[in-house]
UniProtKB/TrEMBL annotation:
GO cellular component: proton-transporting V-type ATPase, V0 domain
This protein's UniProt keywords: Ion transport, Transport
GO molecular function: proton-transporting ATPase activity, rotational mechanism
Record protein name field: V-type proton ATPase subunit
Organism: Rhodosorus marinus
Gene3D superfamilies: ATP synthase (C/AC39) subunit, domain 3
Pfam families (alphabetical): vATP-synt_AC39
Keyword Plastid attributed: no
Domain of life: Eukaryota
Length: 302
């Protein structure tokens, strides 16, 4: 922090930090989760939440309670709290928070593109989009009736326009290429976000660097595993890998040449974290590799 930074911290960031500390204090504890595990019905679940910051969470919902209702309210709470932070944020935090919404935007736009191939009404699809991935100009996308029209709207009037313009051409926009487009956009996003965090320096560069490296490596491993038995060539597969991460460059080059699951296992063997996650998934019939990745990410982010 620059000289005098601590003295002036409260001017721009004190109020926002207090909000975030309040949200963090309201996160369910290990004891709360232990109590929830004892619930036998959704009504028990609702009762257990009354002693937490989620006390008003479901109080106005009629019985019987549905799991979809719980999911909707949980998502709304997340979105409301995120927006409470983002509306108060100044730079560079404001841009950092924008980056956190980009994965949701990517998934939303892929949903809309897929819908246009199936000749669905975009205005109806927007209602199914994740709220964190909505943006001000999204309503303008409703005028598009074909993938070509939608593409032109995206590259002109959305926050993801630079990624689309740089990585996805109109010729790429086919039903068969949807997942390739998704992974191409994620690659561009992760590399851009990683570069931004490194420019910020300090603890942000260190901690986000580790998180984004893990995400880049996880995607590389998953892309490789899911490409087996498909028409995706090794060259196309390699183009979807990020140019950073613990696996980069040697592990990435070897993944690009992998032919089967055993090849992947041998490639990640020298990398302790991924070797342990692979073993955890292989040794547990009730857990797959993505489950192991998710559990590690949650523990790491804590």
């Amino acid at each position: 922090m620059a000289p005098g930074g601590m003295l002036l911290f409260n001017t721009d960031d004190g109020y926002l930090e207090a909000i975030i500390r309040g949200f963090r204090a309201g996160i369910l504890t290990s004891a709360d989760y232990a109590n929830l595990c004892q619930c036998e019905t959704l009504e028990d679940f609702r009762m257990q939440l009354t002693a937490t910051d989620y006390g008003n969470f479901l109080q106005n919902e009629p019985s019987p309670l549905a799991t979809t209702t719980i999911q909707e309210h949980a998502r709304k709470k997340l979105v409301d709290e995120f927006r409470a932070i983002s509306t108060q944020a100044t730079e560079p935090l404001a841009t950092f928070l924008d980056y956190l919404t980009y994965p949701y935007m990517i998934d939303n736009l892929i949903l809309l593109i897929t819908g246009t191939f199936k000749e669905k009404d975009i205005s109806e699809l927007i209602d199914k989009c994740h709220p964190l991935g909505l943006f001000d100009s999204m309503a303008s996308l409703c005028i598009a009736t074909t993938p070509e029209e939608l593409y032109r709207e995206i590259v002109v009037d959305t926050p993801l326009a630079p990624y689309f313009a740089e990585c996805v051409s109109l010729d790429d926009l086919t039903a068969l290429n949807i997942e390739i487009i998704r992974n191409t956009l994620y690659k561009a996003y992760l590399e851009d976000f990683h570069q931004y965090c490194q420019k910020l320096g300090g603890a942000t560069a260190e901690l986000m660097g580790l998180l984004l490296q893990f995400e880049a490596d996880r995607r590389a491993i998953n892309i490789t595993m899911h490409s087996f038995g498909t028409s995706l060539s090794k060259l196309e597969r390699e183009s979807l890998y990020c140019s950073f991460g613990e696996l980069y460059p040697e592990g990435i080059m070897r993944l690009a040449r992998a032919d089967d699951r055993s090849s992947v296992a041998s490639i990640i063997e020298p990398y302790g974290t991924y070797r342990r996650l692979w073993s955890a998934a292989m040794d547990n019939p009730d857990k797959n590799l993505e489950d192991a990745f998710f559990e590690y990410e949650v523990r790491f982010s804590k």
